[in-house]
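Re: that chain you flagged

S.,

Sorry for the slow reply, it's been a week of failed gels. I finally had a moment to sit down with the sequence you sent. For the record, here it is as I used it:
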Amino acid sequence: MPTLLTFGARNVGRVLARELAREGWSTAGVARTQETIDTFVQEVPGALGILTDATSPAEVERAFAETSERFGKVDLVVNAITNGPRGGSIVDLPDDAFDSYLQTCSRRSSTSCGSARACSSRTRAAPSSR
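Prediction finished late last night. Pasting the structure tokens below so you have them in one place:
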């Protein structure tokens, strides 16, 4: 059974995990709040919820380790973190409204990719427990 690890267990990440779970996937979701984790686990059958901060390389590494320990190898990683600028209609936002969001997003993506690479190397080296 394939495994999804989504960084961002609300909105897009939760919907994707729920739909893939219906197709037989194992799913894990990462979020910064217990409320988001509780909703994720409640709405996604058999899901693993991981309370962590995706901006921390050590925490991202822990998310990969917990997911791998429970389900075996991680087959798909999705960065579904959606914490963009707030303040009304997108047309009314200032030109630089997305700057901070994009910097954070690319840092989280880079952290996730680096951890995925490291996790993938270890998974290939060790036999699968499934």
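What I noticed first: The chain has four helices and four strands.

Talk soon,
D.
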